[in-house]
Amino acid sequence: MDKYTQEYTISQLLTEYPFVKDFLEDHLIPYRGKEHLTLDAFFKYLDPNIIEENAINPDLFTKSLVEYIDLMKQYFVSNKPKQTSITIYPGTHKDGRKESFDSIHIKSGEIIAIVGPTGSGKSRLLADIEWAANDDTPTGRTVHINGRALEPHERFSSSNKLVAQLSQNMNFVMDMTVEEFLDLHATSRLVKDKETIIQTIFNKANTLAGEAFTKDTPITELSGGQSRALMIADTAILSTSPIILIDEIENAGIDRKLALDLLVSEDKIVLMSTHDPILALMGDKRIVINNGGIDSIINSSEEERNILGKLEALDKTLMTLRQQLRYGKTIELKEEY
């Protein structure tokens, strides 16, 4: 028995799932005045002449409606998966040697740095994860999500992507303001408390950006750092994707630590390809890539945590100097620098 068609009245469906109204009207279903009925009861008493005139197939319609509701529910922010895990099984290096680890397990809230020389295969590993590889990519790796291989419809679904990717190169082409962009995205996600969500994303983005921007700023006029700050805040708060892949954001001009803290606070898994020692040491572990394969997995040590603290202090000093120069101030090289 399907609850949508046999338990919910049409009125309850419209209240719980407002998008059903468009679905009914697009299919020429004359439901007005009959909202107190279930859909099954509605079709049972619907005039056969109307069914014929509007070319309604009740069985096909109810089946399509149930699929549509289930699909649309995946967009609700409240339905974001809270815990996700990734397990990577070995493939081969470019020269055919098998990777030497048994498996790599990553869970929600972890930050994984992917390091290695340019061209070593970092992007290939990110691609294997994005596609949930099943021994069908050039590396021959297998990636399980939540302990299992994904079915083809899960791997290639455009409506329920497991992975969101943030690139170092980000350009908007739409002619709209920041507020209009956030409103469009929040509306498409069927967010219930839209105004609060939009304000939260806007505030977080301004916290990450080196230079503040307003809601009425056209998105095409945002600087590179402001664009990435907006997209990181948007992805962290509004995206349902539980896995975030970040490709070299060290030159993004944003507060990197705050950005990672924001993503992890939303129970995302964060994997970032980087050459930046601060970002690399922020990770819970580092995956080292060489010659197309995973060479080693290094857990951050206590000594490295201490080094990270010193690097962050130095980085804070550099950011302060950068801001002073940006706003036309003169600087002095004090001993503490």
Keywords, separated by commas or semicolons:
six-stranded mixed β-sheet, three-stranded antiparallel β-sheet, 42% helix
Q: How would you explain this protein's 3D organization?
A:
This protein has helices at about 5, 10-15, 20-25, 40-45, 50-55, 60-75, 120-130, 150-155, 180-190, 195-210, 225-240, 255-265, 275-280, 300-325; strands at about 85-90, 105, 110-115, 140-145, 165, 245, 270-275, 285-290, 295-300. It is α/β, with parallel strands linked by helices. The protein has a six-stranded mixed sheet, with helices on both faces. A hairpin with a 2-residue loop joins strand 8 and strand 9. The model has no long low-confidence stretch (mean pLDDT about 85).
For the biggest sheet, the summary is:
6 strands, mixed
Supply the number of helical segments: 14
Strand composition percent: 5-15%
Mean pLDDT equals 85
H/E order of the elements? HHHHHHEEEHEHEHHHEHEHEEH
Would you identify the regions where 5 or more consecutive residues have pLDDT less than 50? none
Structural class by helix and strand composition? alpha/beta
Placed side by side, the strands forming the largest sheet appear as 5-6-7-3-8-9
For the CA atoms, what is the radius of gyration? 25 Å
Q: What is the overall silhouette?
A: globular
Briefly, what is this?
With 337 residues, this protein is an alpha/beta fold.
Question: Helices, strands, pairings?
Answer:
Elements: H1 3-6, H2 10-16, H3 20-26, H4 39-45, H5 48-53, H6 58-73, E1 85-89, E2 104-107, E3 111-115, H7 122-130, E4 142-145, H8 152-155, E5 163-166, H9 178-188, H10 194-208, H11 224-238, E6 243-247, H12 256-265, E7 269-273, H13 277-282, E8 285-290, E9 293-299, H14 302-326
Parallel strand pairs: 3-7, 3-8, 5-6, 6-7
Antiparallel strand pairs: 1-2, 1-4, 8-9
